[in-house]
Specification:
The complex is a heterotrimer.
Chain A: H1 2-8, E1 22-33, E2 36-48, E3 53-57, H2 64-70, E4 80-89, E5 98-99, H3 105-111, E6 116-119, H4 123-126, H5 133-144, H6 149-162, H7 168-171, H8 181-193, E7 199-203, H9 211-224, E8 230-235, H10 238-244, E9 247-252, E10 255-261, H11 262-267, H12 272-279, H13 320-324, E11 330-331, E12 337-338, H14 344-347
Parallel strand pairs in A: 3-8, 3-9, 6-7, 7-8
Antiparallel strand pairs in A: 1-2, 1-4, 4-5, 9-10, 10-12, 11-12
Helix pairs in contact in A: 1-10, 5-6, 5-8, 6-8, 8-9
Chain B: H1 2-29, H2 34-49, H3 62-71, H4 78-90, H5 104-139, H6 144-158, H7 161-172, H8 196-201, H9 221-259, H10 262-269, H11 274-296, H12 298-303, H13 306-311, H14 317-326, H15 330-358
Helix pairs in contact in B: 1-4, 1-15, 5-9, 5-15, 6-9, 7-9, 9-11, 10-11, 11-15, 14-15
Chain C: H1 17-27, H2 29-45, H3 48-51, E1 58-61, E2 64-66, H4 108-118, E3 123-125, H5 161-197, H6 199-214, H7 217-228, H8 232-243, H9 245-259, H10 262-269, H11 274-311, H12 322-331, H13 337-364
Antiparallel strand pairs in C: 1-2, 1-3
Helix pairs in contact in C: 1-13, 2-13, 5-6, 5-8, 5-9, 5-11, 5-13, 9-11, 10-11, 11-12, 11-13, 12-13
Classes of the chains: A alpha/beta, B mainly alpha, C mainly alpha.
Chain lengths: 348, 365, 373
């Protein structure tokens, strides 16, 4: 499935010459768990270019969600803490970047929802159960734009119609529990996009939904994406990545392990972890009876990450030095980035 | 939903009958009932009359015994007797007090306002203090303010309101320490009970009726307020302490739990001001458990706490019920018990109604 | 780039949830130390006859050693004349009352003084606090304010308040522990049956539980108490018959929740018997609410006992009791020591239990406090 999906896709290659809308630099996020500080994200860097869909892939515990939340400083504190790094946001390609992590609180609020918006995994709990859907979409407009209630209401209804909620006008006065899971996620999308943000960060937006609904939601997100608007799609589902993303960041153990275009990554995975992930997918046309490959072992708990390469405990090509020395993120000639000692020479 | 509540109200009837039937039965078979008392009185009268009669101790005229049996339906099966009582209750007749020689209904109606006055004041104050305090504690969780306010709350947690009452009386009502407040009562019942400063401006002659009796109603408006407040402070403080600790902790926990919910993250992600997130989104959700507690407090609010009423010598419904048990005035006991039970049952339903009103997710089937 | 400084924690050995919870409980200092303190105090309270009593621990008299704290001895053994010793000036012979000798209790404090005055090898070893809870110090007047001899004063019958509070602690704790255990055992049974069988058993049972729960219980206890004049055991049983309702609701709910889970369905599918399923699969899970609520039930039961004693419908007369002292305090508003000390005893005890309860709750259901901004 993956192979063919990548083949069929007319990849919209981002304009990498333009300056990135969002640059995450050396982001470190820690959590305090029972008096111990645990690093969930250990120095992550990546760029999001205008108009692209960037996928961040990883198993649960890889730090991908925490990375996404940090972009809007949505890390609960306590127990969490953004311990270092930068999240640089550019309003337009020629604007000076601003560091979201250093913004005064009021300016941060102006970015939240207005410039960078988010949707979350659980549409069931992400909406406030005691307020109407109309009120919740409306307040997103009211907080960022100087419009009156009626106008905000009109905008909310229009947005709900656009995301495919039938009878939107009437449903404004309904409560979240009166919507199905898929419909609720549509409401979330409407709420996120109602202020036309430059970047939409979607944290596993389809994980809690059934397969048909998943496809619809992804389709909707693609439809709603404007020319210069970027989407950061966080998922553990490689099929989703293959289908929807332009570029992919693979994360493991709180670190970026590999970065590349979706096409490159799926056809020529370099990092042993990426290879393992891809091998664990059932391929279309695979012979009957052929066994699926599984990465040996389990994802280590973030409290017990190895000192060297984070993947060394499960890697099939592990070397001695992997246990003690963490490889840097090697930049290869074709722009690929791989965090693995095997590519040390290739990078030079 | 209406159907649900209609059903709930209908279910009150069998529960009410069950509760009162059990209470009725216990009272009937427990020694010391009306007949025993009659015998005891006869014995006492005899002892007083002198030992000359001697011999036959506790002999009462057969007719008197029969009459008493009839009056209390003791000649009938307990269930039949209960049905008689229930029948009277339905027609609004709670029977007659053996001690006061007055209709129970009248006794109850006289005391209801007194109990409600203290219960309601304490209750409202408890909510007025607990809700904001709980919010501040949740927002300042872990700070020294949180820590030190918890110390006070723990007192309320481990000492019941009435016990604090005895302490307050010792310290503030003319024991070894301060004489700031009266020993109890609802209002002053004589001129010399009035607080001194009120006495200083009220002339005794003005507040007496033609027979020289003290009339509270003749006090000036300010004196009335002062005297009422003077009597209210300590008992109401105890009522308040009774629910204050639990309410504050409930509010704090509820708020803290809601702050960790996903919808809060959504609200912040929209760019809302923290004030709006906390005081609108979070607060609205965290008030749900507190609001539902309103209904369950109904019986305390209306019928009072007999312990606090006893400590402060307040002649309310609770004290009436307690004293009637001591006096074996069973008609009154049953009456007060029936009212209490009704209030509790209705309070439970009221809680559910509030719950349904405040939480749109709740749809009772 | 910042190196992750993930702190090294020992790879946890697989432990049962209960062991993990207990381990977590031990880490919660306040609750754990409260538990140790209270447990120690309770164990120690069973040694009260050797710590606070008017009977000497050891008496040596004319070469013989006696243990009055363990056995009673007639007082003439210690050289008292065969008298009642009622009045110092007039000594009545027991024959006056038509008996040969009278076993009056010896005043060991006086005996000690006598032995010390006369010197020699005779001695009396008194308990650290040589007063008994029922002993009346009328000669010194009742309602004595605290002084060096009676640390917390005496009550309206001239009994030492401190000693009565100490004995009251043992009685209150024992009472509450018994009531809670019986009530919880019964509540668990009822809750399990209703939750397990569900259907009409549950429907009918629920109505009964509702009716029973609807009875204003303290009222009823007072009615029964007023009529019967209950003993310790009777009072325990009466309170236990009203104390099981809350927990039965929880256990019932727990059963309903657990029954819906796959593992119970699997157990039923493999053909295990009803009883086995209940005992082996569901009850261990239902244990959580029991342990979590027990401390607060104990608090409630102690409070109830104090209230009943305060009202005069609690334990029978000479029993040392906190509530009874407070009743005296309410009647004698000037005797602050009759209110302050019992309240302090009650507050300290209940506070320790509340701390334990809080820690148990925290250990069983740790809540990470998170704050978004």
């Amino acid at each position: 499935m993956t192979e063919s999906a990548v083949e069929d896709q007319t990849t919209r290659l981002p304009d990498q010459s333009a300056s990135p809308t969002l640059s995450v630099r050396d982001l470190v996020v820690r959590f305090e768990i029972e008096k111990n500080w645990v690093t969930a994200v250990g120095g992550v860097s990546f760029d999001v270019f205008p108009g692209e869909v960037l996928g961040i892939v990883g198993e649960s515990g890889s730090g991908k969600s925490v990375t996404a939340m940090s972009a809007l400083r949505l890390i609960p504190q306590p127990p969490g803490e953004i311990a270092g790094g930068q999240v640089l946001y550019r309003e337009s390609s020629d604007a000076e970047p601003i560091d979201v992590l250093q913004l005064p609180y009021d300016e941060l609020r102006r970015v939240r929802g207005n410039e960078i918006a988010m949707i979350f995994q659980e549409p069931m709990t992400a909406l406030n159960p005691v307020f109407t859907v109309g009120m919740q979409v409306r307040e997103a407009v009211l907080v960022h734009e100087k419009v009156d209630r009626a106008e905000a209401n009109r905008r909310a209804a229009e947005m709900l119609t656009r995301v495919g909620i039938p009878d939107a006008e009437k449903r404004l006065s309904d409560y979240p529990h009166q919507f199905s899971g898929g419909m609720r996620q549509r409401v979330m999308i409407a709420m996120a996009l109602v202020c036309q943000p430059k970047i939409l960060v979607a944290d596993e937006p389809t994980t809690a939904l059934d397969v048909t609904t998943q496809a619809q939601i992804l389709e909707l997100m693609a439809e709603m994406q404007g020319r210069d608007e970027s989407i950061v799609l966080i998922t553990h589902d490689l099929a989703v990545v293959a289908e929807r993303c332009d570029r992919v960041v693979v994360m493991y153990g709180g670190k970026v392990q590999e970065v590349g275009t979706a096409r490159d990554l799926f056809h020529h995975p370099k990092h042993p972890y990426t290879k393992g992930l891809l091998a664990s997918l059932p391929a279309v046309g695979a012979k009957k009876g052929e066994r699926l490959h599984a990465i040996p072992g389990n994802v280590p708990s973030i409290t017990q990450l190895p000192v060297g390469c984070k993947f060394c405990t499960r890697c099939e090509e592990v070397m001695d030095r992997c246990h003690t020395e963490e490889p840097p993120l090697h930049v290869l000639d074709d722009g690929r980035e791989v965090r693995c000692h095997l590519f040390e020479d290739e990078a030079k | 939903m209406t159907a649900y509540f209609v059903r709930r109200f209908l279910l009150v009837v069998p529960t009410f009958i069950g509760v009162t039937l059990i209470a009725y039965t216990i009272m009937r078979y427990v020694p010391g009932g009306p007949l025993d008392q009659l015998k005891m009185q006869a014995r006492a009268a005899q002892a007083e009359g002198g030992a000359s009669i001697g011999g036959e101790a506790g002999a009462i005229p057969e007719e008197a015994l029969e009459a008493a049996k009839k009056a209390f339906h003791l000649d009938k099966h307990v269930v039949v007797a209960y049905v008689y009582w229930l029948g009277d209750l339905v027609t609004g007749n709670l029977g007659e007090s053996y001690f006061f020689q007055e209709p129970v209904g009248k006794l109850v109606v006289e005391r209801f306002p007194i109990s409600i006055f203290f219960g309601l004041t304490g209750f409202v104050l408890a909510y007025l203090i607990s809700v904001p305090l709980g919010i501040v504690k949740a927002l300042k969780h872990g700070t020294s303010f949180d820590f030190f306010s918890s110390a006070t709350i723990f007192i309320g947690y481990s000492i019941p309101g009435w016990a604090i009452g005895t302490l307050l009386l010792v310290f503030f009502a003319g024991g070894e320490f301060y004489d700031w407040f009266p020993l109890g009562g609802f209002r002053s019942t004589s001129y010399f009970e009035l607080p001194e400063f009120v006495q200083s401006w009220e002339d005794p002659a003005d507040v007496e009726d033609d027979f020289g009796r003290f009339r509270w109603n003749r006090l000036g408006y300010l004196s009335k307020v002062a005297d009422q407040l003077w009597h209210t402070v300590l008992p109401v403080f105890c009522y308040m302490m009774g629910s204050f600790a639990t309410l504050t902790i409930l509010m704090k926990n509820s708020l803290m739990e809601n702050i960790g919910q996903d919808y809060v993250r959504t609200a912040f992600a929209k760019g809302l001001h923290p004030r709006r997130v906390i005081f609108l989104h979070v607060l609205r959700n965290s008030l749900i458990p507190l609001a539902t507690g309103l209904g369950r407090a109904l019986s305390i609010v209306m019928a009072g706490s007999y312990l606090i009423e006893l400590v402060f010598n307040i002649d309310g419904l609770g004290m009436l019920g307690f004293n009637s048990i001591v006096r074996r005035d069973y008609a009154v006991v049953m009456g007060v018990l029936a009212i209490n039970t009704m209030l509790t049952l209705v309070g439970n339903i009221l809680s559910d109604v509030l719950y349904a009103l405040i939480d749109p997710r709740i749809r009772f089937q | 780039m910042t190196e992750p400084n993930a702190s090294e924690t020992n790879p946890a050995k697989p432990a049962s949830p209960l062991v993990l919870r207990l381990r977590r409980f031990r880490r919660l200092r306040r609750g754990y130390y409260s538990f140790l303190l209270l447990a120690a105090a309770y164990v120690l309270s069973f040694l009260l006859p050797f710590l606070m009593s008017d009977r000497a621990l050891v008496v040596r008299h004319e070469g013989t050693v006696y243990f009055p704290a363990l056995w009673s001895y007639p007082n003439q053994i210690f050289g008292y004349s065969q008298s009642l010793g009622l009045f110092e000036d007039v000594v009545y012979s027991p024959a006056t009352f038509g008996v040969d000798s009278v076993e009056t209790s010896t005043d060991y404090r006086e005996l000690k003084e006598r032995f010390e005055k006369s010197g020699g090898s005779n001695f009396v070893w008194l308990p650290p606090f040589p007063y008994s809870p029922t002993e009346q110090f009328l000669a010194e007047g009742q309602l004595r304010a605290p002084d060096r001899e009676h640390w917390m004063g005496t009550d309206d019958r001239g009994r030492d308040v401190f000693v009565r509070l100490a004995y009251g602690f043992r009685i209150s704790m024992t009472f509450a522990l018994l009531v809670t255990s019986i009530a919880y055992a019964f509540g668990t049974l009822v809750g399990s049956l209703l939750g397990y069988f569900s259907g009409w058993v549950d429907l009918v049972g629920q109505r009964f539980v509702e009716i029973w729960g609807g009875i204003p219980f303290l009222y009823t206890v007072i009615i029964i108490s007023a009529a019967v004049g209950p003993s310790f055991v009777v009072l325990v049983l009466i309170l236990a018959t009203f104390g099981w309702i809350g927990i039965s609701y929880y256990i019932r709910g727990e059963f309903y929740r657990e029954k819906a889970k796959d593992y119970v369905a699997a157990a039923i599918a493999t053909g295990e018997s009803n009883l086995t399923i209940m005992v082996r699969h569901v009850l261990p899970n239902a244990l959580t609410p029991i342990i979590a609520f027990a401390p607060f039930a104990i608090v409630a039961n102690i409070t109830t006992l104090v209230a009943l004693d305060f009202l005069g419908f609690g334990l029978p007369a000479p029993t040392p009791s906190w509530g009874e002292l407070m009743k005296q305090g309410r009647a004698n508003i000037r005797e602050w020591h009759l209110v302050v000390f019992p309240l302090l005893a009650m507050f300290t005890t209940l506070q320790l239990i509340v701390f334990i309860g809080e820690a148990v709750r925290e250990a069983f259901d740790p809540k990470v406090y998170s704050r978004m901004r």
